[in-house]
Design a protein that fits this description.
With 97 residues, the chain is mainly alpha-helical. It is built from four helices and two strands. Helix content is 56%, strand content 6%.
């Protein structure tokens, strides 16, 4: 893609999981493995990387899990807002630099 469209910016969003639903504990171990791989791919190929798992985990101090991710995986309104704020901040940084 970069060869055909060299000005294109690639942003990778880290997958995320909170402890809302039953059974999420077994998914956490699998997700952590995938996050490690995605971080390596981002280092090699992306122009930006947003560590959403850590960001959303930190927001658990201010909001209930269900307010961020309704079932631990799919964003609720507050979760969408956190994700959007981080994407907009990255895009602004790209435009201003």
């Amino acid at each position: 893609m970069k060869q055909e469209l060299p000005a294109t910016k690639i942003l990778i969003l880290e997958p995320f999981l909170l402890k809302v639903g039953a059974g999420n504990a077994r998914f956490r171990a699998l997700l952590n493995q995938k996050i490690d791989i995605i971080r390596d791919v981002a280092k090699d190929y992306a122009d930006g990387f947003i560590p959403l798992d850590g960001i959303l985990q930190s927001h658990r101090l201010q909001k209930k899990d269900e307010e961020l991710l309704a079932d631990g995986v799919h964003p609720a309104d507050a979760g969408h807002a956190v994700i959007a704020e981080n994407i907009v901040a990255w895009v602004r940084q790209q435009v201003e630099s």
